[in-house]
Write a structure and sequence with these properties.
The protein is α/β, with parallel strands linked by helices and 434 residues long. The longest helix has 33 residues.
């Protein structure tokens, strides 16, 4: 299949200046690929916001900052170190939670027996989790209603864990959690856990060789793959040593910006349900978003749009809103103020970032489909490779004849190519590769 070489570099200009400097310097001194580190910054920001703030898109449509991010790359190119460097403020916040818990536990132990009966035992608020079941996630989330992040170095382990203990339910858990829908865990002989507003962002890395295995037809058809933001930069190689050092002041400034997001308190009602602060758009920002929304809808409805991209394009509306919330909160935290409204500049940047992720999704899905076509039927793959970028029915038949391919079989192959997003028909008896 002919490749469309569009720019895929992460648009770090969407971040406030101190965050841009942090990413650039980390790339120049520590060899962290920009796309990977920038994506980790999005995850860290989302965790800082948690269930404290949500965006009111319109009555009945609200979005929170939940993202599922998969960074794609071969081993040895600083995927893990880049992730860690972006979420290091979260590690610091966890240390604060641990100190708070130890202090509270020490005070609890000093109480006499009667006082203890009337005092809840302290619990540790955990911020990040790995290698854990939905049931345990729910238990931990109950102790930290603001949110809990799933961080896995290799996402293949996350996906392979699906249904390891409860067949058929784990994937549905994550589909629901993405939408911030309530989670109920019923356990025999134990209390029921109800998380009204689960906030569980996900980030981790994955190797290109397993994309087809993990994100093939089944997970594409149920919309799971369309919920994942892939980060798959071109030509990331293992870099050479660099002598320059990362400035400590940039590290501290970035950490302070992320930790400032936690200062927006988590509001709870009388039933201990989260009550996020609601923000909306400025009039100019709303008009800009609506214009893009309609453009995105036109792209979805366009017959020339690859069929395998329909889900990603449809989910882009949600992703764009979530990125707006993240970028606005990050911008406001960088100038020491609480997020209050989505500005026009933020909408423009969120759209730019959404389009980046759409291109990444296209790259991943093309890779998956090409691998499936290549491995499922060698003759069909050879026929596809032999067809020009644009052709008519006569050319398709001539190509089949040169291969000694039966014309009825060739016709079936053409139908397969159209159905699976390799070809579309711009006109009668006209064909074009995506």
């Amino acid at each position: 299949m002919e490749k469309q070489h569009q720019p895929t570099a992460f648009p770090i200009e969407v971040f406030p200046a101190p965050v841009q400097q942090y990413i650039i310097k980390a790339n120049q001194t520590l060899n962290h690929p920009i796309d990977y580190l920038a994506s980790s910054v999005l995850f860290a920001t989302a965790m800082g916001i948690g269930n404290s703030v949500r965006l009111k898109v319109k009555n009945g449509w609200y979005e929170v900052a939940i993202l599922y991010i998969a960074i794609v790359g071969k081993p040895g190119i600083n995927k893990t170190h880049s992730l860690d460097f972006g979420i290091r403020p979260l590690f610091k916040k966890e240390r604060q939670y641990l100190k708070q818990y130890r202090d509270e536990l020490a005070a609890y132990i000093e109480l006499d027996e009667k006082e203890r009966l009337n005092t809840p035992e302290p619990v540790l608020q955990q911020l990040l989790i790995t290698d854990i079941t939905p049931e345990t996630i729910s238990q931990l989330h109950e102790n930290n209603l603001r949110g809990i992040g799933y961080y896995r170095d290799e996402l293949i382990a996350w996906l392979n864990d699906f249904n390891r203990y409860h067949k058929g339910s784990d994937e549905q858990f994550w589909l629901s959690a993405f939408s911030n829908k309530s989670i109920r865990v019923n356990r025999a002989g134990k209390k029921t856990i109800l998380i009204e507003s689960p906030f569980i962002p996900v980030i981790g890395s994955i190797q290109p060789s397993v994309l087809s295995e993990l994100f093939g037809d089944k997970r594409t058809s149920n919309g799971f793959t369309d919920r994942i933001l892939f980060v798959y930069p071109d030509q990331v190689e293992k870099p050479y040593w660099k002598e320059e050092e990362m400035p400590q002041e940039l590290i501290e400034e970035y950490e302070n910006i992320i930790l400032r997001l936690f200062e927006t308190e988590l509001r709870l009602d009388e039933y201990q349900h989260t009550q996020p602060y609601e923000i909306d758009f400025s009039p100019e920002a709303k008009a800009c978003f609506v214009k893009w929304y309609n453009h995105n809808t036109n792209e979805y409805n366009d017959p020339a749009t690859p069929m395998n991209m329909a889900g990603s394009i449809a989910k882009s509306d949600v992703i764009c809103c979530r990125l707006m919330l993240i970028l606005q909160a990050l911008k406001d935290a960088s100038v020491r103020q609480r997020v209050r409204q989505i500005e026009l500049e933020t909408v423009i940047k969120a759209i730019q970032l959404t389009e980046y992720f759409k291109r990444q999704a296209k790259k991943v899905k093309q890779s998956i489909k090409e691998n499936e076509l290549r491995t499922s039927n060698g003759e069909r793959w050879h026929y596809f490779q032999s067809l020009p970028q644009e052709f008519n029915r006569a050319t398709a038949n001539e190509t089949a004849e040169t291969m000694n391919l039966n014309l009825k079989t060739a016709e079936k192959y053409l139908s397969y190519f159209i159905r699976n997003g390799f070809l579309y028909k711009p006109g009668h008896n006209q064909y074009k590769k995506y």
